[in-house]
Description:
Elements lengths: L2 H18 L3 H17 L3 H16 L4 H17 L6 H14 L3 H19 L6 H13 L3 H8 L6 H16 L5 H13 L3 H18 L4 E4 L11 E4 L3 H14 L8 H13 L7 H16 L9 H7 L19
Antiparallel strand pairs: 1-2
Helix pairs in contact: 1-2, 1-3, 2-3, 3-4, 3-5, 4-5, 4-6, 7-8, 8-9, 9-10, 9-11, 10-11, 10-12, 10-14, 11-12, 12-13, 13-14, 14-15
Amino acid sequence: xxxxxxxxxxxxxxxxxxxxxxxxxxxxxxxxxxxxxxxxxxxxxxxxxxxxxxxxxxxxxxxxxxxxxxxxxxxxxxxxxxxxxxxxxxxxxxxxxxxxxxxxxxxxxxxxxxxxxxxxxxxxxxxxxxxxxxxxxxxxxxxxxxxxxxxxxxxxxxxxxxxxxxxxxxxxxxxxxxxxxxxxxxxxxxxxxxxxxxxxxxxxxxxxxxxxxxxxxxxxxxxxxxxxxxxxxxxxxxxxxxxxxxxxxxxxxxxxxxxxxxxxxxxxxxxxxxxxxxxxxxxxxxxxxxxxxxxxxxxxxxxxxxxxxxxxxxxxxxxxxxxxxxxxxxxx
Length: 332
């Protein structure tokens, strides 16, 4: 064991004893002072390790304000020293954030700073997809659905299934009459982003849950002509917008990048029939469908916003427990 690691272990041992005696503030301040001294001495790896281990110790005593402060300090070192986004650097954040999620008033600040660090290091404008998926799962477990959704949309290949399941849970909680407004949140946005496979995976997860919960309402169509990448094709009674989302996926699957194609005509007809039925969400849905029209059917539309601005606006959240399909949940 190196002398540096030995010193860190000795300090953590002393910190543990101090915390055991209830000296939370003193332990926090001493740890912060030592970490600051290490940073000034350019001993950044030691400072990071000290802050990480110290934050974990404070987690055991539910000192969430101190944990958030030390973790933010650690992430700031990541940013200043351009620490690469690796499994090791992310695991430190994950370890702490999973525990810190018990403290609602602090965890958003911590994970947002971590994601900003990953954006800066990766230079992709979005950040680390695995980190987004991890954060999305934590937020989903806290029933913070709208926040989780934004992370699942730019997450990993596992995120679309997680999003589909979460959107079903969200729909059940609101007691909405038409679950389509919820599955649309995932499917339409994934399509607008050009991620067709994700849209299909989200749909399959959602409709699978719906079929289990309402078997009499979800009837599988067995027509040979309806074989599709989205899996079984259903008729869903009582959920008009669920049927729309399925028809949209089927039309996109058969899409040809030509405004004069048959599939483009079908897409246009679907828009006219269903777009206005999203109520307060109609304008956002219109913009997302414009993007889909351009990506899959070659229809060029002049827009003032980028696709990420549109998707980032989201759909408005449900404002009341029960709605009709003509006055569906807002999705912003």
